[in-house]
Amino acid sequence: MLTVRTGRKSLVTLGAFLSVGALVTGCTPEAENSNAQPTNASVEGNQAEGDKVVIGFSGPAADHGWLGAINTAATAEAEKYGDIDLRVAEGTNDANLQISQVEQFINDKVDAIVLLPTDGAALTPVAIQAMEAGIPVINVDREFSSPAAARTTVLGDNYGMGVSAGEYICKELGGDDSAVVAEIAGIDSLPLTQDRSRGFTDALEACGLDVDNRVAADFTVQGGEAATSQLLSAAPKIDAIWNHDDDQGIGVLAAIDNAGRDEFIMVGGAGSANAMREIQAGEGVLKATVIYPSTQAADGIRLARLIVQEKAMSDLVEVKVPKRVVLNAPVVTGENVDQYLPTAFES
What is the separation, in whole angstroms, between the first and last Cα of the chain? Predict the structure, then answer.
């Protein structure tokens, strides 16, 4: 045992001993770095194969391009990792059926569940049930009504989409406070639609504009065409339109063509490849679209793996995966469309 006395001479002697020891055994920062091992918060540690992770994935029916891209991206992401066993439930728009799918995942004792709910509120109780069973739930796109229902939530920025669309229109209309602005929303009962409309209204208000005409569709081509026909009949003059969804935008553009209207500019939403090609051509009313990432479920798959393996996100100092991740909502125009088109989804 080494006994250290408190006298000045002893302290000096001990200090000299430690200094010599440091000279003998000490490493330079470069040497330390060369011997550093990957951690669970490093890029190498994130990528390193770990224990097998069984992930259950359930989402709505892929009845339009964005949802199809969500499912495809999730599956493709899982295939990148040898330690992921992905169990995919059949897509459905029936909340009760989706509840039973999650219950089956719980019974199967999967390690994590990635869930894009048909209805966030309706799926909240069964998600809480999974969490209480010790199965982390990663909530994607449509938010649960209780924070207790998810370990991590991955969202597109719906409010930000509205803000981005509104700011673009404000800029393009050049401060003309007499301009007529129209909005073609998605499904009004969904919180995501409400958030998009709120962001749009707030952005327009900042430049002295408001929404003069508004209709809601249902995220389908047929619904977009019907709602737009109604809008155009009711509004003989329009300067700008924001359509929330590029899939329903196919019907929106068809209605515009049928009506022979071209006096306005139009902004889309979500960022489909066909919308971007229309923007790239620069010949029609569609001048921009706002990205709503179709990578959300893929991000959920990756985060589920990190959570189960007790890893962290390598670009963060925090040693745990965040509770909430909100993705960006950039505007795609003719100037930057080439950057976004390669990763866009097909409608």
Answer: 75
Handedness of CA 124, 146, 154, 44 (dihedral sign): negative
The C-alpha atoms of residue 293 and residue 202 are separated, in whole angstroms, by 22
What pLDDT digit, counting tens, does each position of 98-140 carry?
999 999 999 999 999 999 999 999 999 999 999 999 999 999 9
Please calculate the CA angle 189-346-70 and round it to the nearest 5 degrees.
Answer: 55
Q: What is the mean pLDDT of residues 142-165?
A: 97
Contacts (Cβ under 8 Å, ≥6 apart) of 114: 55, 56, 57, 58, 74, 137, 138, 140, 297, 300, 301, 304
CATH code for the part of the protein at 45-155+295-315? 3.40.50.2300
Domain 158-292+331-343 part of CATH 3.40.50.2300: yes
Q: Where are the domains of the chain?
A: 45-155+295-315, 158-292+331-343
8 A C-beta contact, residue 156 and residue 116: no
Please answer whether residues 109 and 85 qualify as being in contact, where contact means their C-beta atoms are separated by less than 8 angstroms: no
Task: Say how far apart CA 71 and CA 63 lie, in whole Å.
Answer: 11
Conformational region of residue 317, where left means phi above 0, alpha means psi within -120 to 50, and beta covers everything else:
alpha
Average pLDDT, the chain: 89
Question: Does residue 307 sit in helix, strand or coil?
Answer: helix
Please give the DSSP secondary-structure letter assigned to residue 344.
P
Q: Are 209 and 173 in contact (CB under 8 A)?
A: yes
Q: Closest Cα partner for 256 from 277, 278, 280?
A: 278
pLDDT tens-digit series, residues 283-312:
999 999 999 999 999 999 999 999 999 998
Tell me if domain 45-155+295-315 and domain 158-292+331-343 are identical in fold. Answer: yes
